[in-house]
Structures are given as structure tokens and as C-alpha cells.
Amino acid sequence: MRNMNIEANRLVNEKSPYLLQHAYNPVDWYPWGQEAFAKAKKENKPIFLSIGYSTCHWCHVMERESFEDHEVADLLKRYFIAIKVDREERPDVDHIYMEFCQALTGSGGWPLTILMTPDQKPFYAGTYFPKESRYGRPGIVDILHQLGELWKADEEKVHNSAESIYTAVIASKVPPTPSMISSQDDDFRPWAKEIIEIAMQTFQKSFDSQYGGFREAPKFPTPHNLTFLLRYAHDHGQEPKAQQAAQMVRNTLDAMGQGGIYDHIGFGFARYSTDRHWLVPHFEKMLYDNALLAIAYLESYQVRHDPQDEQTAREIFAYVLRDMTAPEGGLYSAEDADSEGVEGKFYVWTPQEIHELLGPEAGQLYCRAYDITRDGNFEGHNIPNLLHTEWAALAEEFNLPLEELSLQLEEARQILFQAREKRIHPHKDDKILTSWNGLMIAALAKGAQIFGDTTFSDAAQRAVSFIMNNLYPDQRLLARYRDRDSAHLGYLDDYAFLIWGLIELYLATEKKDYLGFALSLQRAQDELFLDSEELGYFLTGHDAEELLIRPKEIYDGAIPSGNSVSACNLIRLARLTGDAHWEKRAHEQLMAFKSPLSTYPAGYTAFLQALQYALAQSQEIVLTGPLQHAEHSKMKELIFAEYRPYTILLYQEGTLTELIPWLTNYPQDSKQATAYVCQNHSCHRPVHTAAELSSLLST
User: Fold this and answer.
1) Is residue 577 very low, low, confident or very high in pLDDT (cuts 50, 70, 90)?
2) Which pLDDT score is estimated for 381?
3) 497-541: per-residue pLDDT in tens?
4) Which of 98, 276, 403, 666 has the least CB density, counted as fewest CB within 10 Å?
5) What CATH number is attached to the domain comprising 564?
6) End of a domain among 113, 145, 172?
7) What is 158-224 written as a DSSP string?
8) Does residue 142 sit in the same domain as residue 29?
């Protein structure tokens, strides 16, 4: 609880929810900026840099233990200039100093703690530190005192250490050799196929065949691993390894959907599971996780047509549209793990609470179905989950048909949801990020494609309109909007993820303006971010603040990298437009990252999907004629009903030829729908009914 006797510090004037959380700390915080750096140089003090985000549990812990503590605040003021950074607003700053942390300690995470010279070169790094040293972990009090005194006693030694660290990190960022960036004629296929196979072998070895997912706890969803495996299964037909890839995806999606990582009462996924079984989540919910997971469930639905995949995807969207959508259409960033200072308190239950709300019979049924017990499965309380529920046995035990069982449990869920709404909610990070909105726009548009539900495409269009109205001044994307304030020049991810969303939205709505906007943004991305010497894209534009390093990211962590998504975008735009310029750019993007991809292919599965796309036989479908024609709608539904990860679809209408001149070769009949299908550079005869198109596609 905020101590109102403490005066606000400089962060009170910021818009970031994370920085505002620290606005009443006794620490003399500065936001990242020239004022802080000038003061550090003037007073010749090192900088204490703390990076986190508003829904980070351990950031909250470190704040309570240290940053609300006057002893720590006094030490910081005596020895350092203290700077706070929201990693979601400044991914460039976060990326640079996370690299230093990983180089110095072998690991990273948030809160990220960096001690650096006034010229921003780190000499000490770590993540969470308790206030006092314990169990072999140094405390922040000891760190601040010892390193503050070291700076006073031997500043030159600290500078030399920082310079050595900086030189080593720079040296590790070896650019690709010229042989790696080959000409347009070079064949990437042999090494691409080899890298894809190595990634598959890695997943085979690390797959948890009992509980789904990969490796031991903690387990992260990492949906791009699953969508890579879906493509691998598709590409290898009836081969045993294709079946293994498909099984890994099925087992993981099913286990996550049944586990406590999924909110069975209010919907949506938490960030990760702390245990092997997907039972106990780290309760924060992120927009990007739910966007990428929705895409994974949607694509899985196209493959196996399991109603549970459809239900999970629809429920994710229900959560986002209900809880994460601003009145103006933009999408909020995240919800915290903590409420009332306790992790998970909002989400857990006791049997007594369930029985009081549902009554004895319905309460007993719900408790049996969702693992609500007297002993609890989480610190004496219960996280609802379906990990051990056998539906047939449950129906028999309660003498209910399966359909009636589902109806009763859904009625119970609604009652519990309404009761839970009266609890104190976790903090919502209501800033609107262009990049994460781009991911959810892509997911919602895919949902509209597959289910034909305009609710999803309408929401996606409103989010695009919000970005265009609030985050696109002077034809330059900005990264963050909050409280009527737009700020921070957009990063690579803002452009790449929004382009992805726009392509999907064009396919969902048939509106050429979205494809035109995507092409315009791709041209701007090339101008702002392209590394013309070594290829690939920098994270920051050439018009951005000059930092210690100009970062370039390729690793696909919790979120795919902008370079990976750009590789996919460029291939799709090349095939959509038939423009040789985009084909050349796509080839250069693939060739630019051969070296890092080869080091650990399983760490780059979003980029590998671009390689899979490039290796696949091309298939183009052009639908012409009246867009309102009944057969047109049936053809579109048919195309999206099945999993076609490499199919290009265009809707021919008069003015689209301005973007795609080659469409003039496809005659339009004003009275009937027509589908033109070309595959592997060979075109079939045009067809005019969905039945004919189905027959053609099946062959």
C-alpha cells in the first residue's frame, strides 16, 4: 500500500504503468533520458539501472523489499544515479543490457539490474536481489555499498572493467561472413532442410511424452515451436516423424488447455507453468501469449477439426474482447499475477466457496470435475483444472449424459465468474503496444477466416483503426499509447507484427486497403531498419536514439523476433504481389541469418517457418467475380476449412490491379464466382462452384 507521506519522485510524470508503480518509492528515480545521464557525468556517479514491467511478480517483490526501503534509497542516492525503464516501452534498452547480463552471469530475466558507468557501459549485472545477502545470494545493500565505495576508491579500475566487458560483448557479435550473404542465385535449400531436421530432432529429445511440452519445469507455451511442428508434420506427409511432430503438438495443446495455466473460469492463458504438469501458473496474463496461442489452436483446429481447439480459441478471444480491449478499439498489454499483494489470489478457490455459490449438488460436481479439494493443489487453495478429469467416468458417477454434464458445468462457471468479478482484480497494464496489437490482430483475423465470425474481424479492424489514428503520425509508427499520449519511435517488431496482422486481415475481410497498408509499412521498414551492409533488420530505426549498441535480434523467445516475422512477411508479400523486389528481399533475409540459425535451430522456430514456406511448393488461389456471390462465400469457407500454411489467396476486384498488376490476366465475370488455382508454377482450369474447387484442391 502506498505511503502517502512520501513525496512522489520524477516517475510520477511518466505514462508507463510500471514507472508509475515506482513513483512513490523513496528512491530518487529518473526515467531513461539525458537529464539522468547529464547528472551522472556532472556528479561523476555510476548509474543504477533497473528494468522491469508492470505485471512482473519478482519486480513487485524487489520493490517491496528494497525500493520502498529508506536504507536502500539512501544508499542509491549516496553512490548512484538511479534509472527505471519499462522494458515493454523500451525493448531496445532492455535488449542491450540483457545481453550484458547474460554475458556476465550466463542467465537473465526481470527485474534486470545493471550497474554502469556514466557513459552507460556495465560493470555489474544481475536480476532479482533481496535486500540483505542470504543463501549465497548477495543482497542489494551489500552490492550498493561495496561497489559504490569501489567507484570512489578506484574509479579507473571500474572503468577498465566496464571497457573490457563492453569489448568482449561487441566481439561476440561477429557479423556474417561474405560467404553467408550470397547472391540471389545461391541455393539455400540444402542447409535449410538440414537446420529444420536438427530442430525436429531437438524437440524429439526434449519432448515430455507424459505431460506435453518440452523439457522440465518451468514450462513456457512458446507457440511458435508448435506452429513449426504443425508445418513439419504437414510437409512430411505419412512419414513416422511427421506423425511424431503432430503428436507433440496435440499432446501439448491438450495438456495446456486442461491445466491450471488456462483460466477455466474467465478464459485466457497465463504466462507459463511453474511445474511440469501445467498445473500451477505464473498467474500474469500477457496479450502476446494469448495471441500466439490462439493462432496455434486455430491452426491445430484446421488440421484435426477437434471442437476443443475451436472452443479454446474462441474463449481466448472472448477474454481479450471482454477484458483487454479499450473502448476505442486498442488492446491492452497484460494483467498482473498478484492481487492484494498475493500471487494468484484472484484465481484460486476453496471447496467451501464453491459450495456456498453453487449449492451442494452443483458444488460437488464442479469440485470433482475441476480438482477442488480440501487439501488444495496450490498453497492450501485450488487452481481449477481438468488434468485428471475423465469425462465418461464423471458422467457415469453423476448419472448425467455428457451433453447435460457440459451444460451444468458451464452454468456453474458463469456463476463462479460473476462471483469472481466482485473480488479485487489484479492490476491491468492498460498501455497499448503497436507490436502486441499486431499479433492479436493476426490472431483475430485468422479466427475470422476459419470460423467466418465477423465479431473477430470487426475487433481486428477496430484495433487497426486505433493504431492508424493514434500511433501513426506523419507516416511513422509509434510504439506505445496510454492516457492520450503516444510515444517512442516504433521498433522493428511494431512494423513486422502489424504487417503480419494486416496480411491476415486482408485475407479475412477481402479489403485491399489492408494489403496496401502492409506493403506501405514494409517499404518503410526497409528504409528505417534494414542493415544494408550485413542484411537483416536492426531493432531500432536509423532515426532513433543512439545507444551503446544498435541491437539486431533474431532469437525467438517468448515472442518471435521481428527478423523472423519479417522473413515470413517478405515471402508472403513476394508471392502475393509477384514483385521480384520482394522476392529478392525475402531471399536476402533468409540468407542473412544462416550462421546463428546453425548454432541452435530450435531457438529460431519462427524463422524456420519462413524457411519451411520458402521450401514449399507454391499454391496460389485467385477468387474473382462478385464478392457477395453465394459460391464465393462457399469457396472462401472451403479454403480456410483445411490447413494450408503455404497457400496464397487473392480476391480480384477492380482496383486491386493497382497493387498487383498481374491480376489483369484473370478475367472477371460479373455474374458468377470464379476460382483460379495455380500450383508449382502450373495453373488449372478455372472453376465456378465450391464443389469443383473442392475436387480440384483434393487432387
Assistant:
1) very high
2) 97
3) 999 999 999 999 999 999 999 999 999 999 999 999 989 999 999
4) 403
5) 1.50.10.10
6) 172
7) HHHHHHHHHHHHHHHSPPPPGGGS--TT---HHHHHHHHHHHHHHHHHHB-TTT-SBSSSSB---HH
8) yes
E strands, 436-515, are 478-482, 485-489
SS (H, E, C) 359-421: CHHHHHHHHHHCCCCCCCCECCEECCCCCCCCHHHHHHHCCCCHHHHHHHHHHHHHHHHHHHC
- Residue 116's CB: how many other CB atoms inside 10 A? 25
**Can you give the pLDDT at residue 654?**
67
Three-class SS of residue 138?
coil
Q: Is residue 2 part of a domain?
A: no
Q: β-strand 674-679 against 682-683: which pairing, if any? A: antiparallel
Residues 333, 373, single domain; the answer is no
**Number of structural domains in the chain:** 4
Q: Are 387 and 259 in contact (CB under 8 A)?
A: yes
Look at 251-260, 439-448, 674-683 and tell me which has the smallest mean pLDDT. 674-683
Across residues 177-204, what is the average pLDDT? Answer: 77
pLDDT digits (tens, 9 = 90+) for 244-260: 999 999 999 999 999 99
pLDDT at 16: 96
Q: Do residues 102 and 129 share a domain? A: yes
CATH of the domain at 682: 3.40.30.10
**More confident site: 452 or 171:** 452
Residue 31 has pLDDT above 60, yes or no: yes
Q: Please give the residue range of the domain that contains residue 314.
A: 190-340+429-615
Same domain, 395 and 438: no
Burial class (CB within 10 angstroms; exposed 0-12, middle 13-18, buried 19+) of 121: buried
Beta carbons within 8 Å of 448's beta carbon, 6+ residues apart: 454, 455, 456, 457, 460, 508, 509
pLDDT number for residue 645: 97
Residue 134 has pLDDT above 60, yes or no: yes
Do residues 160 and 235 both lie within one domain?
no
Domain match, 453 and 490 both = yes
With respect to residue 3, please indicate whether it lies within any of the assigned structural domains: no
What is the number of other CB atoms lying within 10 angstroms of the CB of residue 580? 10
Does 184 fall in a domain? no
CB 61 within 8 A of CB 130: no
Please name the residue ranges forming H helices in 530-619. Answer: 562-577, 580-592, 594-599, 605-615
pLDDT greater than 50 at residue 180: no
pTM of the model: 0.95
Instruction: Provide the pLDDT for residue 181.
Output: 38
Going edge to edge, which strands form the sheet with 81-86?
Answer: 29-31, 81-86, 47-52, 112-116, 122-126
Instruction: Please tell me the distance from the alpha carbon of residue 642 to that of residue 300, in angstroms, as a whole number.
Output: 10
Cis peptide preceding 596, ω within 30 of 0:
no
Cell numbers 508445418: residue: 231
Same-domain pairing of 549 and 669 = no
Stretch (H or E) spanning 650:
strand 647-651
CA distance 632 to 613: 27
d(CA 263, CA 253): 14
Domain contains 102 = yes
Q: Which of the listed residues 396, 422, 448 is the one where a domain comes to its end?
A: 422
